[in-house]
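Work package 3, deliverable 3.1, input record:
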Amino acid sequence: MGTPAIEIENLTKDYPSGFWRKRMRRSLDHLSLRVEEGEVFGFLGPNGAGKTTTLKLLMRLIFPTEGTARILGRSIEEVAMHADIGYLPEQPYFYDHLTARELLDYYARFSGFGRAERNQRVARYLELVGLTAAAKVQLRKFSKGMLQRVGIAQAILHEPKVVFLDEPMSGLDPVGRREVRDVILDLKRQGRTVFFSTHILSDAEMLCDRVAVLVRGKLQGTGAPGEIVSINVQAMEIFFEMTDGRQLPQALAKQAAQTGDRYRLEVAEAELYASLDRLRETGARILSVTQVRPTLEDYFMQLVGREAAAPHAMEMVTR
Amino acid sequence: MSAMPGVVAVNTFREAVRDRVLYNLVFFALLMMGAAILVGQVSIGINRLVIVNLGLSAISVIGLVMAVFIGVGLIHKEIEKRTLYSLLARPVRRWEFLVGKYGGLLLTLVVNTSFMTVGLAAALYYVGRPFVRSDVTVLVAIYFILLELALVTAIALFFSCFSSPMLSTLFTLAIFVTGLFASDIRDFGALTNDRAMEAFTRALYYLVPNFHNFNAIAAAGHGDRIPLALVGENTLYAAVYATVVLVAGSVVFARRNLK
């Protein structure tokens, strides 16, 4: 296996809280992750899970209490490595005295591009995020969605190998979300690694090769969205209707849900054939039998619910 | 030499210009015009003295207000608005950012002071006095004001690295006032006959920047010659002191968690 794009080992972050008696609140708890080159990796978790903390640690905006991280095989402390990464902060805010074009030109200067190269890149990426018409408008007049778009443009205009996006769909309308999804897929086609945090699970399911779920600072699981959700596949779903005006027996009627003339019955996989036999005996006509595949959302809610029930999840350490 | 501070400095300057910071020049222009007209009518023989004193004092006060109030917010604003986040994710070191912000504000102050200098020269010309060789002292006094502003900006930026704008303003102004009366404070300590107090005031004298050294307004008003050695000493003093303060600020800022 080659050098991973991102390698996180035991990354931990404690924040002091309280005024007089300082207590440490653990925001991220020994996170270890490995993201391969070219992957689109979804970092999932509810608000306060530690997603933004992780990204800030990787961007060296904050410093870890414990643990290390490497990007493209190089320490995150190595400043030169940051030329190969792009970052969109959560709810980005940029210098509002600048126009979109000036802002992108400003960021392009940090990559050392000459004037011609900068002009060409700025025009290309403004077009990519649909802001060509607003190129000369000062950012103070931009909507939240437009700021998000210009933020994405600044994160990728130097064509970094690894792109970190913190809640990239936040504040976007359906069209904007679609465009961001296209940008991410385009980055993947170009062989770039994309690491994005989100709590919009349908986006993660649609885009990610792999996801990690973080709840209250702790990693709950990592894997392909399909792998993760298939852990709990047990149920089968039978759709049927009654023929010749027959009535469904009382015992089965309690289990089945009726919508119009149709019924839906959910049974364990092991009981499928027995249930089908019973239904046929009562004169039911089977319309379809499908496997109940829990969505990523089901899995996510299950984890969040379990963690919420455990009061020790948010570890308080007195120093 | 890294180009990063230059990129940050130009943006900081552009921000100041677009935030209408240079509008204070209108106030200065009005002050100079009013003073020139008034002085022309009421004062006989001391036109130059009044215009030079008023002009240089205004340049100093306006520059000081800008250095303190913009300086203390430079870093804080970037953190508060999170504009710093996407920048530090780039190959930019924190000290480069800090030096860039410092350079940007200094550039703003130099441009602002240059315009005010032109305004002062115009006022002097208006009161009907041809320029003479000794007017060079006015330019030297303005240069000293710029050195003073460079130091104040460094101090304001230092506090901005770890405290709120309000506290940073208080700290910076406290150091400025202490520095302005540094010699008097040391002399006061010597008069107390208390060894501890004497040691304390002497330590304070050496610790805080001696801003009194940069005040050449009276000399400029009277057209007195300012020794070249003093120009060199003040330049070196301001450069060394500002560098030390900026290095200290960089050390603090380098390990600061940006929440």
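Residues 46 and 301 of chain A are 9 Å apart (CA to CA).
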